[in-house]
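User: Quick sanity check before I run a bigger batch. Here is a single chain. Can you write out its predicted 3D structure?
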Amino acid sequence: MAVRHVAVDPEGCSSLDEGDAEYIKDVWNAWELQVVAKEGLETCRNARKTVAILDQQDVAVDVGTEMELVLDKGSDVVVTAVVQKGWVKPGCIALGEDLRHSLHLVHHMNSRWVRYCPKPAELPLDLLKLELEVRRIKTSGKNNKISEVDGVELAASLQEELQGIIVAVGQVVLLPYQGVMLAAQVMGTSNLSEEEKEAALFFHCYRGRVTTNTFISVSVPDNIDAGIILHNCTKAPETTPARGEVDVYTNDGEWFPVKKQILRPCISFTTHVRKAAGARISVHVDVPCLIFDKVLIFLELQAQNKEREYEVDIGALESLLTAAEVLNNCALRDFCLDRLGDFSSRMRLYCWEEVIQNNSKGGVWIAIDGMVLDVKRWLPEHPGGQRIIPEQAKNVDSTTFFEVYHASRESFLYLKHFYIGEVQEDDLCLIPRSTLPSEEFLVQLREYTDFRISNKPAVETFKSF
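Assistant: Done. Predicted structure follows.
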């Protein structure tokens, strides 16, 4: 077993949400532990089934101490581990079959653990509701006759077994019950009341702690043989349709349920926002689904006063501006106009010597059909690697290279990101070129590059050679 410090710079926590810095500082130690099957250890036979076992030598705390751990990466499941002396070998963690299944770990597998510290977004941690789907584990050579189970009694047994344990959506819990083995999978969790959900700007609960106040509902899977018949099912009280939400239908038939608080900055929604206070309503907007999805991201950031963090593809700005006018959202309109203005201000005509001089100083400007593209910042993302463009495409006409290596027209959509202007007309003849692109390719290229500052195509230069 080895205890290591996680490579986290506390000073770097300033960029995290409030409270996340403390979360990072609390998760300093990581334990490298080998997984062992808990059911195979005689010492763990009487241990609580839903907890893991650690050796005192590894963690240097009192015997009987409970620690909440999570895998360093890759799982939402929180493990409650009890510290014992001599129950497991040092450097090991004993996990039951259900925990190994939920964590995607196997016997003798090495794993890396850190302490679990709930982030502010997870609070309150205590669950008000827990939804479980139950089925019977069939075993070979035994009586697999369908069992009849009382839902209320089963929910009470699960509540007792899970008391104080943090569970996550998707996690599976095994429960011996009336002579059979049941598997209960977590299908839903909630830590807020219905009224609190309506008041909350955002709600996303995917794990929490089971308490005596947690209402547990149990059901069986639909359309498969669960191996049990569930009588007297426990169900959460029926909830009325959410108020304070507006169903926004786009002009291509899609719809989005949106909190009225998020829509408030859109003046066009004023009447609908007021009506949503008493009931759930719907509204149609003349905006396509893909653009409204981008609008929603902006509105959610706006509701948190984080508009400056909004990032969007340059090619979507004009459509977003149109949507801003339709929705009458001044902040989104100003954002689009500012970005479009910044884009326009960067565009100008270049003489060919300027392109060569920039490249000689470490820049990566390339010429495609007379366009000047600054691709240096994109090189680490280039599917063909960082070297091929600087080695083959600088200081020459790269139009044919682009045609040969970028058969997908999706590549055209990226050009506007890198476009900074045009090679001035008189210098087009100075650009070295070995072969000419096809006329068909040039037609398609220009269909995707209507943002160019000059409407006069460079094809005339190609024809003169």
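The longest strand covers residues 180-190.

User: Great, the batch can go ahead then.
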